[in-house]
Write a structure and sequence with these properties.
Largest sheet: 5 strands, mixed, barrel
CATH topology of the largest domain: Spore Coat Polysaccharide Biosynthesis Protein SpsA, Chain A
Structural class: alpha/beta
CATH architecture of the largest domain: Alpha-Beta Complex
Distance between the termini: 64 Å
Number of strands: 13
């Protein structure tokens, strides 16, 4: 067992979801359904199933429905009971996290994903923590979070960062943070990261290993984010932000982190769907629907087998009863 247990996770959910407009004009992209559950539900369940105890969701204006989704609704439960909708009631109860396991904080200024993470600094305190982006839906027999925890235990150092990564086509590197590995990455093993470049042009990318929205970060990253936020605000106030980029990027902090500390990557084994765009969201719905149909078919077959076995035993018991009756 690792000495350094990850207990907390941050889910940034404050973005506008502009790639999904007009669907996200009134509905947060995190609440768009994938089969029968909203997208953010999968991110929360992935963390809780891996043993994460506390989750902080960073929201923005108009995102109150996310809080409503995870709240206990006694009136709804009573309505389901009154109408004898037991299956629906069980589904609601089974998918509602325990009280106190999820908290919320508001990102007042839209300054990007890592500014949202910085908003969690007082809640994180001095612990390593997960960052999970909900628009990345990852489906695997062993979840991405669990895969990362298994590798993190091998590293056994609370001062390192660990990024989940996948090998992408070269043309896709312009959409991701690209990792420059030291050596050749292998499955089930951490690989050290030399540098990280945010959304490089394909011809300028140092590799095609890309970060995919699951991170274990050391508590010390908050100090780096604090400086990055202050630096960004100072540049904006003095009109020195030549790129006019308001967002705090991971690269604003990680390069200085690499000077003194270690960043690792680990290859994720499973399927990935970018639900921040229409094509990925549709593909995710199809994939999850197939999974659910297969699960239902397996359950039906199992039940039919149980029914057949039960029928066999019923016939056997009837036969034995008849024999016993004849003896009498």
């Amino acid at each position: 067992m690792s000495k350094y247990k990850i207990r907390k996770a941050v889910i940034p959910a404050a973005g506008l979801g502009t790639r999904m407009l007009p669907a996200t004009k009134a509905i947060p992209k995190e609440m768009l359904p994938v089969f029968d559950k909203p997208l953010i539900h999968y991110a929360v369940r992935e963390l809780l199933n891996a043993g994460i105890e506390s989750i902080l969701i960073v929201t923005g204006l108009g995102k109150h429905v996310i809080e409503n989704h995870f709240a206990i609704d006694s009136a709804l439960e009573q309505e389901l009971i009154a109408n004898k909708k037991i299956r629906e009631l069980e589904n609601i109860k089974n998918n509602t996290p325990s009280e106190g396991s999820i908290a919320f904080v508001r990102q007042s200024h839209r300054l990007g994903l890592w500014h949202a993470v910085w908003c969690a600094r007082k809640w994180i305190k001095q612990e390593p923590f997960f960052v999970s982006t909900p628009d990345e839906l990852l489906l695997a027999e062993t979840s991405c979070i669990q895969q990362m925890l298994n590798i993190y235990e091998k590293i056994n150092d609370a001062d390192v960062a660990l990024f989940a990564a996948m090998e992408m086509e070269r043309q896709q590197t312009q959409h991701y943070g690209v990792l420059e590995p030291i050596g050749k990455p292998e499955e089930n093993k951490p690989f050290q990261v030399k540098s990280i470049v945010e959304k490089p042009k394909p011809e300028e990318a140092l590799s095609n290993f890309c970060a995919i929205g699951r991170y274990i970060m050391p508590a010390g990253i908050m100090d780096k984010l604090e400086k990055a936020v202050a630096n960004k605000k100072n540049k904006q106030e003095n009109n020195l932000d030549l790129n006019n980029n308001k967002e705090i990027q991971l690269t604003d902090t990680i390069e200085s982190w690499l000077e003194n500390c270690t960043v690792f990557g680990c290859l994720y084994k499973g399927e990935r769907y970018d639900c921040g765009k229409i094509g990925g969201w549709v593909a995710a719905n199809v994939a999850v629907a197939k999974q659910q149909i297969e699960k239902q078919n397996n359950e039906t077959q199992s039940q039919e087998k149980i029914n057949r076995e039960n029928e066999h035993w019923r016939q056997t018991i009837d036969a034995l009863n008849k024999i016993e009756h004849r003896k009498k």
